[in-house]
Input
Amino acid sequence: MPENLFKINAKEYILPGTRACQGCGLSLAYRYALKALRENTIVTLPASCLCVLHGIYPSTPVMIPCLNNSFASTAASASGLVAGLQAMNRSDITVMAIAGDGGTFDMGIQALSGAAERGTDFIYVCYDNEGYMNTGTQRSSATPLGALTTTTPIATKQQHKKDFIKIMEAHDIAYLATASPSYPIDLYDKFVKAKKIRGTRYIHLYIPCPPGWAYPPKDTVKMGRLAVETGIAPLFEIENGRFRFTGRSKSMAERGNRLPVINYLEKQGRFRRMNIEQLHQTQRWVDGKWQEYLRRAQE
Output
């Protein structure tokens, strides 16, 4: 298949007419992930926004084989697929497990941790839209401090989100990366790279969600860019223990032009009840993370 100027596979694996929400960041990210992985790929996923995107059997807009699994068992399902393919001597097929933050940070952590400890040969993708968006915007452990959800309707969430990147890095896995649909070339390159590596690979997608975050659907790409430019969602990869910034975050680290977090927070209705102390806490939290990443990038 011919490629364009940016060397992105021109073939489409998601046809028009999905059941995703208008302005869905996941649709953009999934499109480029499948372009990078290409035909010899099997996807497994739990009940989630992505399950909705795939549609109702026997109709689907996605041209890649897909296996549905229970909410907590995405990594276990992927492990079974890997074992079956190994028994068939089919090393040419990539297994990708993909779940939201609820199915990863919360209910799916046990199966994922076990698979990562064993070094099971698959790509695990967490698409992090910071809540249980498919079931009505409930709080997850990925929901940020100060956010409104249907289970934090008045006082907002009182804790910072779980640092799941650090948890996965502690498993000493083969490859770990973050990506955003607002920077598709960076995302595409990381999936191409992950496909060539053996062992457990973890990619964390930061996914803007218009209905859950309460912003206009037309602003999805802008919201993803602001997340990166404020340091809320830095772009990086860790390979063989070596940390490095990528894409927009790399240029920000070199130039020191990171934006204040309020530029990002004030554009989302879910933060409308955030108080000034929570705003300062968020800025300090992001600053601390950013300084840690800068230090690691210079090692």
The chain has one domain: 25-297.
